[in-house]
Write a structure and sequence with these properties.
With 413 residues, the chain is an alpha/beta fold. It has helices spanning 6-32, 60-68, 90-100, 117-126, 145-155, 174-194, 211-217, 227-237, 258-278, 287-332, 348-371, 381-391, 394-408; strands at residues 47-53, 77-83, 104-108, 131-134, 139-141, 159-168, 207-210, 241-252. It is 54% helix and 13% strand.
Length: 413
């Protein structure tokens, strides 16, 4: 008689979710594969670019120069740098550009707010134009990024936010190369979700907004650790839309050391949890926000944590059983191990587990090929395998630390 244990059920549930998401993205990709990198042609309209800054003296000058070099009419772009009481020479460097260029303005916050939201809000209120872009002070956008994104806001008046492909700038060490893989896959996946109104974040390195809509919903949340997620959920809750332009690219500095990466991911996870808790009442309500984005985000966030707990349980149980059986064998003077206990016959669950892993590996390689069609990954096979086997398994560990700090209320930028 066939019977299934709780562990078997959990394993099959994981298989179902993995196959479901892979199939969903595949079904979205196939009919849209030829238009992934297309974008609506828009008219040139004035844009205010807000650059929140804190202790970015090494990069703020380069960022300002890249914004002034955009392939966009110079008279239609103003750059607003808002410093959050930096302790380095960020303000001094920004002031030099303010003196040199009429379309560069610099503001200094009266206090250190401890985040990017408050400086961004100051910049938005001071901005002159209908469209505003928000750019991290260590980002380098492609010259055509703005003209590729502006059409999304003009094509549909309900679109209030547009994001682009955020990629790693000049990955030099192993840690950054792993993040480069991750960023490529995220960009591709986000574009696929765009086709079902599933874009749930406009990352800080470069995002474009409709100023009127931002003011209507109350601007960025100064208490949220990931204001770029929260603002999109708030816009969606007010019946606005967010879009993704895959062909527009911005390059961001990625952490080069594990400690900095870990701190960044802790902040991201805490901010995501804050947003999830804030909008929990929209679950299975309010169009795509409630029926897809919140469940998708929640499952993505906590599924790894449950899997980690299950792994620890099974591993601990195996150790305890092995310890007790060894102790009994020594006491009873029987064989500690016999070849009868060894089986080389794989179970159905083992087969599905391996199939799911290789499916994920294929998904990663395929996504990298879509993002970089002229690049070969033969020399980076080890990086992709390590990314799939090790790097992704670090996420549940990050979640444990993040939830611990969130529950205790001990977190900051």
């Amino acid at each position: 008689m066939f019977s299934i244990t709780f562990i078997d059920f959990v394993f099959l549930f994981y298989m179902f979710l993995g196959l479901y998401m892979s199939s969903l993205l595949l079904f979205i990709y196939i009919p849209n594969r030829k238009k992934l990198f297309l974008y609506p042609r828009g008219e040139f309209k004035p844009v205010s670019i807000i650059v929140p800054c804190f202790n970015e003296g090494k990069t703020i000058g380069t960022t300002i120069e890249s914004l002034l070099s955009l392939d966009y009419p110079k008279e239609m772009v103003e750059v607003i740098v808002v410093d959050d009481q930096s302790k380095d020479d960020s303000v001094k460097i920004a002031r030099q550009y303010e003196k040199k260029y009429k379309n560069v303005r610099v503001f200094v916050n009266k206090r250190n707010s401890g985040g990017a939201a408050e400086p961004t809000n100051i910049g938005i209120r001071a901005s002159k134009y209908e469209y505003v872009a928000v750019v991290d002070s260590d980002s380098m956008p492609d010259r055509d990024v703005l003209k590729k994104m502006i059409g999304f806001l003009q094509e549909d008046k309900k679109v209030a936010a547009v994001t682009c492909s955020v990629l790693v700038r000049n990955p030099k060490n192993f840690m950054q190369r792993l993040q480069a893989i991750e960023y490529d896959i995220i960009a591709w996946s986000r574009k696929l979700l765009d086709y079902i109104d599933g874009v749930y974040v406009t990352p800080g390195p470069f995002a474009l907004y409709r100023k009127k809509s931002l003011i209507e919903v109350g601007l960025f949340d100064t208490k949220n650790m990931t204001q770029d997620i929260e603002i999109v959920w708030r816009l969606l809750a007010h019946d606005y839309k967010a879009r993704m332009c895959l062909s527009a690219r911005v390059y961001s500095e990625a952490p080069s050391k594990f400690k900095a990466w870990f701190k960044q991911r802790i902040r991201w996870t805490i901010g995501g949890t804050q947003t999830l808790v804030k909008y929990r009442n929209y679950f299975v309500k309010k169009c795509m926000l409630g029926v897809f984005i919140i469940p998708f985000f929640a499952i993505s966030l906590f599924l790894g944590l449950f899997g980690l707990g299950l792994f620890i349980y099974l591993f601990s149980r195996s150790l305890i059983v092995r310890y007790l059986s060894t102790k009994y064998s020594l006491y009873a003077q029987t064989a500690i191990f016999s070849f009868q206990e060894l089986t080389l016959i794989p179970s159905v669950l083992n087969f599905f587990g391996a199939a799911l892993f290789f499916l994920g590996l294929f998904f990663t390689f395929f996504g990298l090929r879509v993002m970089n069609p002229n690049k070969t990954y033969k020399g980076n096979i080890f990086n992709v395998i390590f990314y799939s086997l090790v790097y992704l398994t670090l996420q549940p560990i990050v979640l444990v630390f993040a939830l611990s700090r969130y529950i205790r209320g001990k977190y900051s930028w």
